[in-house]
Every structure is written in C-alpha cells, then in structure tokens.
C-alpha cells in the first residue's frame, strides 16, 4: 500500500511505525497461525495502536493508512510501553512528519493556546516555555497571528525550534500516562 497523494478533508490516517510480518516473537504458535501485525500512530489524536493485518496486506513501514482499510482485521489502542523497540525509535520521526504535513495546525496551537487555570496556560506545558517566553508569544500573536514556525522563531526572541518543542511535548504525553494535562495526545475511550 502506498501513500495517497491527496487526502480527502477530514480523512483520518495513521502512520505505520513498525511491522511484524510473522506476528509477535513471544507468540508460541506456529508461524502459519500468527497474523501479521503493525504498530501505528494516529495523525489526528496521536493515539498508538496495534493493527492485526490480513495475510495479503501490502502495508509497509512509514505508510499512511486509513483505519477502515480492508486489510486491517482488528485495531486496538496500546500504551507506549507496549510498542516494540523499533516502533519507539521511529516515533519521533513520525511525529515530526505529521507536524510537517499539517504545519498550520500546529502553528495555530501557538496562535490559539488558552489559559487552563488562573495560574497555568497551555503554552507553559511546552518544554522550556516559562512565564517570560509565554508572555512574549502572547504579545506577538496579538499583533498578528503566526503563519509558520520560521516566523514564530523570528518574531519571538528566545523561542528556538518551536516545532521540536511540540515534538518533545507530544512524546512526553505518549510516554507518561499519568500527565494531568494533555494538549495533543487524545485519550483512548476503551
């Protein structure tokens, strides 16, 4: 299965992080009784999932897939700790690619972030952003909304690598299930 060139509006996709064509190595059943598996990251909600695939599935590493693809026989949400090591090592690249594909959505986070409580703002949840940097971002966005990460970095003194800050926060939300506030990673409804 290859990347689809143009996505339909509102179409949900996931990025394949790792493939286990012969199933889990810790499964003691004979190989012919095991289903191929894939591990994926949702592009909208950043939820992790394990996909049981049909034998003839033509899905590869880093493909973008739809959850309703007919080659996916079953899907269930998993926690970060359940990811194989290969999938964990690809996670940061998949997050970066997702942000690059929809940069404006993530730039708009800086444009639209709101207070959570009287003392805490969504921007303060980002690594390295304290009160002073938060206020600089808020002041600049009042003048004019940010249109790109480059513009954000250029206009806000002291803000370096705004995309990487988001990648780091998303990884933190994926790794730490006990975080009080989540701004990017959805919660599984199971």
What does this entry look like structurally?
With 190 residues, the chain is of the alpha+beta class. It is 32% helix and 14% strand. It is built from five helices and five strands, in the order βββββααααα. The protein has helices spanning 85-101, 103-112, 131-143, 149-155, 162-175, and strands at 14-20, 37-42, 48-53, 64-65, 72-77. α1 crosses α5. The protein is elongated and about 60 Å long. The relative contact order is 0.14.
**What helical percentage do the residues reach?**
25-40%
Q: What series of H and E elements makes up the topology?
A: EEEEEHHHHH
Low-confidence stretches: 1-9
What is the level 1 CATH name of the largest domain? Mainly Alpha
Derived from helix and strand composition plus strand pairing, the structural class reads alpha+beta
- Strand line-up of the largest beta sheet: 4-1-2-3-5
Strand content: 5-15%
Query: How many domains make up the coordinates?
Result: 2
Region (Disordered): 1-36
Pfam family, one: DUF655
Protein name: RNA-binding protein
């Amino acid at each position: 299965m290859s990347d689809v060139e143009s996505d339909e509006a509102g179409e949900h996709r996931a990025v394949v992080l790792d493939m286990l064509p012969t199933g889990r190595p810790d499964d003691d059943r004979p190989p012919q009784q095991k289903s191929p598996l894939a591990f994926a990251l949702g592009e909208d909600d950043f939820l992790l999932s394990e996909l049981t695939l049909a034998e003839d599935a033509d899905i590869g590493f880093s493909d973008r897939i739809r959850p309703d693809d007919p080659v996916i026989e079953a899907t269930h949400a998993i926690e970060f700790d359940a990811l194989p090591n290969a999938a964990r090592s690809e996670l940061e690249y998949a997050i970066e690619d997702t942000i690059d594909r929809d940069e404006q959505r993530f730039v708009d986070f800086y444009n639209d972030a709101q207070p959570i409580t009287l003392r805490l703002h969504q921007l303060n949840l980002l690594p390295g952003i304290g009160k002073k940097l938060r206020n600089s971002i808020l002041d600049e966005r009042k003048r004019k909304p940010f249109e790109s990460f480059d513009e954000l970095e250029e206009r806000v003194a002291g803000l370096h690598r705004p995309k990487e800050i988001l990648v780091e926060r998303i990884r933190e939300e994926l790794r730490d299930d006990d975080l009080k506030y989540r701004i990017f990673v959805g919660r599984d409804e199971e």
